[in-house]
Specification:
By secondary structure, the protein is of the alpha+beta class. It contains six helices and ten strands, in the order H-H-E-E-H-E-E-H-E-E-E-E-H-E-E-H. Helix content is 40%, strand content 29%. The protein is elongated, with a radius of gyration of 20 Å. 16% of the residues are buried.
């Protein structure tokens, strides 16, 4: 079977977004074909080059695959590189995606166990801002006070906690939202990090960060 490199690259980008990989890393792969390595202890991404890139290209050639990210770890027997790749067997792609999608489903289940006041909507609900190019977000969970939504921001998938608009002048509801916001946000981090090695955080145009599982569950 010969799947084109463009098809494999498009599939790889979908998986990178599902995994929540840094937007810059995805963009570099999409535009320039740069494969990045995530290496401890900071889990930062850097471009594969030299011997690393040579090993990646040999793997791709021998397996007719496309590597999109390398996860590096250090063990008692030495350095271990895990190649994340798109195979040449298209019938396997759905199964590979389902494994990644399982992370999101487990997040929903784990979060609802922690906070039973949240539940799935009875039908699919999208929040779309008015105007051309307005943001569109899928509602995963909701309570009387909050919604948890999923947004595809082109380079990654974001899970967000948003407050429902309170009736004008309803100070009681507003104060309760303020008290519960951080509690629910911490619960979201905990549920995501049970399945992911690290997550990115974003609170404004100039404020972002990264939380690793081993640091969070100290």
């Amino acid at each position: 079977m010969e799947i084109s490199i463009d098809e494999k690259r498009a599939e790889a980008i979908i998986r990178m977004k599902m995994l929540g990989i840094f937007p810059d890393t995805i963009q570099q792969f999409k535009k320039d074909g740069l494969v990045s390595i995530s290496e401890p202890p900071m889990e930062a991404f850097f471009w594969a080059e030299g011997e690393d890139l040579e090993r990646i290209r040999k793997f791709e050639e021998s397996h007719n695959a496309l590597v999109y990210v390398v996860i590096r770890s250090y063990t008692t027997i030495g350095k271990l590189d895990d190649f994340l790749f798109v195979s040449d067997y298209k019938e396997e792609w759905q199964m590979d995606r389902e494994y990644i999608e399982d992370v999101l489903e487990c997040f929903v289940v784990d979060f609802c166990q922690m906070f039973p006041s949240f539940d799935r909507p009875s039908e699919e609900v999208w929040l779309t801002e008015p105007g051309f190019g307005g943001r569109s977000r899928l509602v995963l969970l909701e309570s009387k006070l909050f919604r948890i939504v999923l947004e595809d921001n082109e380079w990654s998938l974001a899970v967000e906690l948003i407050q429902k608009e309170e009736p004008w002048g309803d100070v009681w509801m507003e104060n309760l939202q303020k008290r519960l916001y951080q509690k629910y946000l911490d619960g979201m981090k905990k549920a995501l990090l049970k399945r992911l090695p690290a997550i990115g955080t974003y609170s404004g145009a100039w404020t972002s960060g990264r939380i690793k599982r081993e640091e969070y569950f100290i």
